[in-house]
Write a structure and sequence with these properties.
Rossmann fold, globular
């Protein structure tokens, strides 16, 4: 079997690296194509060592642009590679413009498309990621779902064939990289286990709206009077705090530079809980056995909020949600929501049937 994997963003590189190990084990030929949509890897050498990340066979050099430009350019250049290589399957990941471009090329050339991380749904329906994932799901032959809720989402849209609950490949990553989690920050700031919370805020609806950002910082300031708040701050958030003159609300918060994956996971696994608007971190907190307050109107990981593990919060209700978490520690149906850490193995076996 010959397969083309199309990637375009940093998380997709990591997911592909996990699957690549399984492809090699099963004797499947993989051609790796990088669209060039995001070209800042910013990964530790440990990733390359542990995951043996391979160099792309093709780099389309798309770069940035409007949604139409990125999707269109990727389709044009990717189609040339597909026509040259003649793969049996095209594999795409997640919900980027690269994902949709690859799915459209494959479906129009009548080559089966496999979608890793299928079935995720989130409001609002007009957000670019939601459009990309819905359209990709509807033209894919193999739909590999990270949770049972994702399979149910597809069923509601009358997609039932080729749907598999495989688990989340990011859990595979978490388990592989856990021995390398970096606790340097914990030691540097003399943090005690379960006596601090980790927060990240970077979404435009939270940072670019002065009243929302002010409310969030005021809530974090309230929380800091009871427990230390550690805030690896995104450049956009830092810039807005200065622009909106909100520094007065950050005096009691430990503001630090952004962290890479290994340092962030080292910090999270010793924390009490997490406050975030990051799609990835709210799920990674679950992997680490930590609950999260999600400062978003909705989440792509609804299975965690439905199970009562994570809670959604409005900007001015974070402290109330913290009190709720602290007083409601018993939650149900939270084991193995994202599988057993063997998602990569399951996906490759299903493709190799």
């Amino acid at each position: 079997m010959k397969l083309i994997s199309l990637i375009g963003a940093r998380p997709q590189i990591i997911k592909e690296a996990i699957l690549n190990q399984e492809f090699e084990r099963e004797g499947i030929e993989e051609i790796l194509v990088h669209s060039g949509q995001h070209y800042d890897f910013n990964m530790s050498d440990v990733f390359f060592k542990v995951l043996n990340i391979k160099k792309a066979d093709y780099n389309l050099g798309i770069g940035s642009g409007t949604h139409a430009e990125m999707t269109g350019k990727t389709m044009i250049e990717f189609e040339k590679v597909v026509l040259k290589e003649r793969p049996d399957i095209i594999l795409v990941y997640g919900d980027t413009n690269t994902t949709l471009a690859g799915a459209l090329v494959g479906s129009k050339l009548k080559i089966p498309v496999a979608h890793v991380e299928a079935g995720i749904r989130q409001e609002p329906k007009d957000m670019p990621e939601e459009i990309n994932r819905v359209l990709t799901d509807h033209v894919s032959k193999y739909l590999f779902c990270p949770s049972k809720l994702a399979t149910n989402n597809l069923k509601k849209e009358n997609i039932t064939e080729g749907v598999y609950f495989t688990g989340d490949i990011m859990y595979d990553l978490f388990l592989k990289m856990k021995p390398y989690f970096d606790e340097t920050i914990i030691n540097k700031f003399i943090l005690e286990e379960n006596k601090y919370v980790v927060t990240t805020i970077h979404r435009d609806f939270n940072t670019d709206n002065k009243s929302n950002l002010k409310a969030i910082l005021k809530e974090l300031n309230k929380i800091s009077k009871e427990i230390k708040v550690v805030f690896p701050i995104h450049p956009r958030t830092k810039k807005r705090i200065e622009e909106f003159d909100l520094k007065q609300y950050t005096k009691n918060i430990l503001m630090i530079e952004p962290l890479d994956y290994l340092s962030m996971m080292g910090l999270v696994q010793k924390s009490l809980f997490v406050i975030t608007d990051s799609g990835g971190l709210q799920k990674e907190a679950y992997f680490a056995g930590k609950r999260a307050i999600v400062v978003m109107p909705d989440t792509g990981w609804r299975e965690l909020t439905q199970a009562g593990w994570n809670v959604l919060s409005e900007p001015d209700k974070i402290k109330n949600k913290m009190d709720y978490l602290m007083n409601n520690k018993i939650v149900s149906n939270v084991e193995n929501i994202y599988g057993n850490g063997k998602t990569g193995e399951k996906i490759v076996k299903l493709l190799n049937i």
